[in-house]
């Protein structure tokens, strides 16, 4: 095993592995939007108005590939596609929801951090 694999914060470090799954801009928000129900693609897109259709498709496909989201396509015209969290997705939802809830409760703090970062 390489030294970086056994280092305390190496590639196998659990937090790094978690952030590889959910550490981008859109994945936690998409997971959180599916927390309470099955949703159609258009419902998810309306709930997250600044995500592009292309990006939402990419995130949903990645989540489906990871086994966190289940997609159901109904053979109707126009096509109807629904997404819901799998049991693994619901398990991962817990830390994501905690992060999203914390962010909502500390919005003023986050505003200040963003302001400082923008001021350089």
TrEMBL record:
Keyword Protein transport: no
HTH hxlR-type domain ranges (all copies): 13-111
Entries under InterPro entries matching the protein: HTH_HxlR, WH-like_DNA-bd_sf, WH_DNA-bd_sf
Family annotation (Gene3D superfamilies): Winged helix-like DNA-binding domain superfamily/Winged helix DNA-binding domain (1.10.10.10)
Signal peptide bounds: none
Species: Actinotalea fermentans
Keyword DNA-binding carried by entry: yes
Xref: SUPFAM superfamilies: Winged helix' DNA-binding domain
A GO MF label: DNA binding
Protein's name in the database: HxlR family transcriptional regulator
Top-rank taxon, per record: Bacteria
UniProt keyword terms in alphabetical order: DNA-binding, Transcription, Transcription regulation
